[in-house]
Specification:
Strand order of the largest sheet: 2-1-4-3-5
Helix content: 25-40%
Shape: elongated
CATH class of the largest domain: Alpha Beta
Number of domains: 4
Oligomer: single chain
CATH architecture of the largest domain: 2-Layer Sandwich
Distance between the termini: 53 Å
Order of helices and strands: EEEEHEHHEEHEHHHHHEEEE
Number of helices: 9
Largest sheet: 5 strands, antiparallel
Length: 265
């Protein structure tokens, strides 16, 4: 039986299942593939990724063919396409104003073969762009796709800078979506009580990096007594007030004199 792989498109994050053929690929490899509309860039994802994202295995969308793994020459071509896409933004802005649409244009992307042009925008509500699409298609002579994006994707599109001083992870190296980030992850790392400014990123949402070290924190916490529990220390019995997960220590308020001591665990 011919091996099948899952491919996630770089442009719209759509997931395809395709026949691999004789090509050897690893999870995370960037590849060039072809749909019935255009040639696109994507990357190989595994079954674990689908489970983490709670995405069902898709039986449809089989009409793609894998062309090859991306080469250095392909990457140069992609850079050229990115430059071409940027040149379309000014004219697209004019068309948006002409049609009186409430759209904030953020960026554009051209498919590998130059047949499909995607514009990314934000808007406070739904936008009826049915009159805009044919106008853009006749202007640029390409298949036009308009995609409304949210706060996280806006930061990715614009390439914002995070509190660490580096370009945001979603723009710099993350491929596709990260598993949902929750406030519980911040509390597991003793950050939830520090205020929203400590845990929100440039997009205004919880920082993606809260997920990176979560497993280490959760594993370390299992070896520490819970906050509020009573434990015995070399200086007497007391109540655990807080945990220092990285140092594997807890702060304890002693029952006999209410002193607070730090104890190794």
């Amino acid at each position: 039986m011919e091996k099948e792989i899952y491919v996630k498109a770089k442009s719209d994050s759509k997931i395809f299942k395709a026949k691999l053929g004789n090509l050897e690929v690893l999870e995370g490899d960037e590849i060039l593939f072809e749909t019935d509309q255009s040639q696109e860039v994507g990357y190989v994802i595994g079954n674990e990724y689908l489970k983490d994202m709670q995405t069902p295995e898709q039986e449809g969308d089989q009409n793609i063919s894998i062309i090859r793994k991306l080469t250095e020459k392909d990457k140069e071509r992609i850079a050229e396409r990115d430059a071409e896409a940027k040149e379309t933004l000014a004219l697209c802005e004019e068309k948006i104003k002409k049609h009186g649409l409430e759209m904030n244009l953020l960026g554009a992307e051209l498919s590998y073969d130059g047949k499909k042009l995607t514009f990314y925008f934000t808007s406070p509500g739904r936008v009826d762009f049915r009159s805009l699409v044919p106008d853009l298609a006749s202007t640029f002579k390409k298949l036009i796709r308009l995609q409304q994006i949210g706060a996280r994707d806006k930061a990715k599109c614009l390439g914002a800078v995070g509190r660490c001083g580096q370009k945001v992870c979603c723009k710099r190296f993350l491929k596709g979506d990260l598993e949902s980030v929750t406030l519980e992850m911040a509390y597991d790392q003793n950050l939830g009580q520090s205020g929203s400014n400590r845990v929100t990123g440039a997009c205004g949402k919880l920082m993606c990096c809260l997920k990176y070290e979560l497993d280490c924190y959760q594993k370390a916490k299992k070896s520490l007594p819970e906050v509020g529990s009573e434990i015995k220390t070399p200086e007497g019995t007391g109540i655990v007030l807080s945990q220092n997960i990285l140092k594997t220590k807890v702060s304890v308020e002693l029952n006999k004199d209410k002193r607070i001591v730090e104890v190794d665990c």
